[in-house]
């Protein structure tokens, strides 16, 4: 059975082999492509259901591209773990878009992906036609960072896919009461892979070394100056009702600085909302269609 997406590999600026998925609409369209950037330890599979929905949308189909950062998913692992940083990853995304011949796009970033967008606003603003930030902003709440650090510092390797789904339900269920067991099964398939018959997290474990020097008792540097560079762009923020990473006060300040900012609060979900659930695909489709109209 044919895959509903095209797989590409391309060279990073330093020569590392990287991977992306391209979902093409069934008919020729004049809409802007949507580029999806995943979270810290996540990969292109996070966006599979959303990409299918948007590429095949009844009225506004579009091309959707989702990237695996270096050291995640199907991209090569970097022999130098210090390269696992948002500046390098922004450069990798720029190289991927150049490989695909894309010079302007709407870019969606989940968690770390949103931080990468802030870097793109500095180094390649011409690429950005519109932005969607999924549960991320220019300032990160320490409570959320501590929670992520604790979760990643004690990884568990499930023995079966059923156990992997149950683990996600146990860990994330309290913050995600809106999700079903089927959602957790799909979630598990996106974050683990089977290697030699063993189910393992789908990222380079050296990635976690980048967090070793982070002092989670101190406020981290913010990206407000970079966020301000998005002021003229259509901007949508999606926030999980139960998130601990994106504080309401941060969203209020984002709205003050960007009065045209649109906000979707997702009931019954935490960090970060699953974008294929509920009404989110249609809400995202409406936002990106509006960016198309602004371009005309």
Please give the largest β-sheet: 8 strands, mixed
How are the strands of the largest sheet arranged?
A: 1-2-4-3-5-6-9-10
Q: What's the total count of β strands? A: 10
User: How many domains?
Assistant: 1
Q: Which blocks of ≥5 consecutive residues have pLDDT under 50?
A: none
Q: Tell me the name of the CATH class.
A: Alpha Beta
CATH architecture: 3-Layer(aba) Sandwich
How many H/I helical runs?
Answer: 9
Which class do the helix and strand fractions yield? alpha/beta
Q: Note the beta-strand portion.
A: 15-25%
At the fold tier of CATH, the topology name is Rossmann fold
**Overall geometric form:** globular
- The name of the CATH superfamily reads Alpha/Beta hydrolase fold, catalytic domain
Radius of gyration: 18 Å
List the helices and strands in order: EEEHEHEHEHHHEEHEHEH
Distance between the termini: 38 Å
